[in-house]
Amino acid sequence: MSDVMIIGLAGGTGSGKTTITRRLMQRFGADVSVIYHDNYYKEHHNMPYEERAKLNYDHPDAFDNELFIRAIRDLKAGKDVVCPVYDYSIHDRSDKTIVVKSAKVVIVEGILIYASKELRDLMDIKLFVDTDADVRILRRIKRDVRDRGRSLESVIDQYLTTVKPMHEQFVEPSKRYADLIIPEGGHNKVAMRMVVARVQSHIYGEEE
Fold first, then answer.
1. 3-state DSSP call for residue 154?
2. Which pTM was predicted?
3. In this structure, are residues 92 and 43 in contact, taking their beta carbons and an 8 Å threshold?
4. Backbone dihedral angles phi then psi of residue 127, each to the nearest 5 degrees
5. pLDDT, tens only, 77-94
6. Are 127 and 178 in contact (CB under 8 A)?
7. Residues 149-178: pLDDT tens digits?
8. What is the pLDDT of residues 182-202, one digit of tens each?
9. How far apart are alpha carbons 34 and 100 in whole angstroms?
10. C-alpha dihedral sign at 185, 176, 110, 6
């Protein structure tokens, strides 16, 4: 497969990135696939759980970008990739893997994907979802307690000690690299129509 379009989709935790991804996948089916930066956290198998729990997972250094970049290059070249799976309940990479298929459009989703120039340079379009901090923290609490088996206290503590300061230091400034900033994510109908039209023109060969 040639002419694979790579779309970067960044934004703070709980900003609504996944809503956009889901809508594009529902609309275009097998022509769109997604690879998540979150699955490329570095593995820490030799570190005790208590130590892993204290690590800063909101810093660019928490990710195995070398492996991630290799995977995106393979997808861009039309090759499927075997992707690691991260287990939030143990703060470590699990022993599972998933296959991410190459497609006409590949979405690269993550909070810190624009912090690396090497990563940015692989992307044809860079989107940034911009959502108010109070909305994002409420969504994060709901998700982490319900889906990731975390206590409310641990989620709030992590938010105040690492998530918020790292967002301000790395995520928010990376917004300047975006081609399109989308306030309110998938609920922004005008922006969604623009993104859908661009993806549609690439998939069906209606390039301008």
1. helix
2. 0.89
3. yes
4. -105, 145
5. 999 999 999 988 888 899
6. yes
7. 788 888 888 888 888 899 999 999 999 999
8. 987 778 899 999 999 999 999
9. 7
10. positive
